[in-house]
Specification:
Elements (H helix, E strand, L loop, with lengths): L2 H20 L23 H14 L1 H9 L4 H9 L3 H10 L10 H20 L8
Helix pairs in contact: 2-4, 2-5
């Protein structure tokens, strides 16, 4: 080995040791983020929860159409809902637990159709034959 090669290796090793000691990064710490109120919910009591459930039922297209058939506007229904007693609101919310919230089920049907179409496309890409009888 010649002298310049030894000197080059020495300074390379010295530079490596200095850079590793200067650039030492502390260990990463992880933990759970503290929970906080997001400000988007206003449910503080049982009545508030029942009111939210009853309002979601009023958003249902079938319920809204039935109310219109009886001559009740959605604004009138909201006013009547706000003036109901706690027991009446709870009874209404309990009776409406089986109804879908706000929609009429078209989202679920569209989701099923998208999945079926994706399965057919994947089968066609795999050169499989799709036969509907």
């Amino acid at each position: 080995m010649n002298r310049s090669s030894k000197r080059f290796r020495f300074w390379t090793a010295a530079l490596l040791v200095v850079s590793m000691s200067v650039l030492e990064v502390g260990p990463a710490a992880a933990g759970l983020a503290p929970s906080r109120v997001s400000g988007t919910t206003s449910i503080t009591s049982v009545r508030d929860a029942d009111m939210v459930m009853a309002q979601r039922v009023l958003e249902n297209k079938v319920v809204a159409q039935k109310l219109r058939d009886y001559g009740v506007t959605s604004a009138d229904a909201q006013v009547r809902l706000a003036s109901m007693s706690d027991q009446d609101v709870h009874t209404l919310a309990s009776a409406s637990k089986g109804l879908p919230s706000g929609g009429d089920g078209t989202g679920a049907i569209i989701g099923v159709l998208v999945v079926v179409i994706l399965v057919i496309v994947v089968l066609r890409l795999m050169n499989r034959q799709v036969v509907v009888r």
